[in-house]
Amino acid sequence: MNEGLNKPEYEIPPEMKHSVAITTIDRIYNWSRRSSIWPMMFGLACCAIEMICTAASRFDLARFGMEVMRPSPRQSDLMLVSGTVTKKMIPQIVRLYNQMPEPKYVVAMGACASGGGPFKEGYNVVSGVDNYIPVDVYIPGCPPTPQALLNGLITLQKKIDTQSIRDVRWYKKGTSETIPVPVLGPDIMDPREYDLLRQYTFQKLNPENINQPSVAEQEKGS
Amino acid sequence: MSAQVVTENVDLLEKFPQSVKQDDRAGYAGYIVSADHLLEVVRFIRDDMGFDYLASITGVDYLPNGLMEAVYHFYKTSGGPGLVIKTQVDREQAAIPSLVSLYPGADFQEREAWDLLGIRFDGHPDLRRILMWEGFAGHPLRKDWHEPYYEEEGKPYKSRWPEGKVYRREDKNPFHKNVDYPAGFDPDKWVPDDDSTLYASVNKISSAGGESGIKTDYVIVNMGPQHPSTHGVFRMVVALEGETIRALKPVMGYLHRNHEKIGERNTFLQNMPFTDRLDYLSSMSNNFGYALAVEKLMGIKPPERAEYLRVIMAEFTRISNHLFAIGSLLNDMGAYFTPMLYAIEERELILDIFEATAGSRIMCNYFRFGGVARDLPEGVEEKMRDLAFKRLPRKIDELDLYLTNNEIVKARGEGVGVLTPEQAIAYSASGPVLRASGVPYDIRRADPYSIYDRFDFDVAVRYHGDVYDRYLIRVDEMRQSVRIIQQALNGLPKGPIQEGKPQYLVRVPAGEAYGRVEAPKGELGFYVVSNGKANPWRYHVRAPSFVNITALETMAKGNKVADTVAILGSIDIVLGELDR
Question: Is the CATH number 3.10.180.10 carried by domain B3-11+18-122?
Fold first, then answer.
């Protein structure tokens, strides 16, 4: 029986080690989840190539039970954001995230997905996917080597180990909230920020407002 | 400075004394053609002078002169140097006649120039934005257009070192994000683009009636941007009659990460690692093209050993790229991941060499102006020899044995997605796509660069122009690459690897240069304009994936919807380079 399944403080006689396990609900729940994470088959850019290499025989993602890549978000547990997130693509990414069933995790693979990376200043680049969707693990590197990606995934497994069935969000009452899909306007628009947006464009319109404290300063004060 | 452009035997000036004049700016070459007579002159260039291949179209915004310039590079598929012509118009009302009627390959490149520079091409059949979305504010590559994170015209930014204190640009943006909106904009009144212009352009063909003569409704199907077989974030909109494709429009830009705008802010050398991320499967080849372009401007040449190392690395890159291309093509045909595993196994060994030499597996950043970054560490040459003389020839044969006569590969490939030689040239296809259609055009032979003229190799050609031949040609090319590597390893001289001292800030004289290499996917060109400052004034990438995709609709029409996947796989696109 898997070492990870047993709760360490309980002694099991050696002759029964292979057939008996004493564990907690949380532990067996997390143990089974962490060992069969199905990532979404979803490649964005350069990092996707390293992701493919990690899935191939040399690095072998299957050792972690993660080799089943699902092309559909409805069947996947993990979104590996592998590459530069652009403004043109972010509505689709948010939509894909919303379509994933709980429990779901997001790993930002590489500098671009984590914070824009070398392309941060680009006019079509979202500087970090966490501007729109929550991220569980960030993996540095440009691109992260397969070893780094594996380390990131092990970190995700450790995170899963700390969760408890009592307070995970997907067993809470009520429906889970979907993230509003960004809109392609003159620039990318986040529906959650329309108030700030209106304030900003109004301020820009009236030159007499320029002497008043800017939106940013107001925010800082509040 | 651009040595490629030979002006002998050209009687353009005599033929069109009114509308053509020599481009006599220092460091420039070619001709300036007036916009009114462009079509006439280009028709002469194509029909009478024999420049049948339009390699690249781009624009340059000469803001200080108030001019918008379109730059055209023509070549002959029989080989030889090229011809550059330019058209200058007022940048406020930039309108130039479209060349799509003469060269269908101009289609996407003109759309790109419209999207990013705001040059209107009159007579273009489908002038829509291509990389950005409809409704985006402004044409971002114009010099007076500033991105939300704009700091200064060129790097290094002073703001990053104000007495040792660095601030982050997002802290100065009210949204703390990379966004900006026009004054007075109201999000509630905004109607986002519903792709109606896109669907209208797909529907143009739909009213004609099918083969049977019965008028049927076409079903419009979207594939992508999230689709397992589009090799990344690529979208195709197809109009189907039953399962037969009647029209197909590629939609791109989902990975448009602004290489050109960032490249014009970077210093010349800072662009080198960015070129790695264009075609991220073959970073060494990308380095090669950019290094050639800037070296042409600077008028320097790398020492012998560096030339050999460059060729060895570029050819290893070609092998690793073709392995990956064949693996993913087989994936697309349904042989899910098994051939890919064989391909990746060999590719990993090549990547080990890159990692040992350049320090990184896939983002090598290995070339420098006038040389390469590092010499081979101990033991790497033996590894290369082992691969080139023993392992790779055997493994390529193995791949050939398993796949070439496979019934499914033949059934899915033969006669599918045919591109005739005439079409391939007209659509400016390059690389394996062009050569699989029976056009023996390889820049390494047709217009040799670096030291390719010293090696004995064959230009692989296949004649059917279908998916199967595009598979076969990659196997052929891997064999030729192995031959080149073997010769280069045997001839590898000792000596320095860098001309002069390595410099962080290189001095590049004013002028223009177009550096082109035979990248694994086709002609990769870098059009660089320098005005003598630390940053390029214009940095344009002529990406093979982007131009090859122009012919996708022609290849796919009449085939079944399942075949598009194989056809797309056989073109071998990489989104980093397609969208740039």
Answer: no
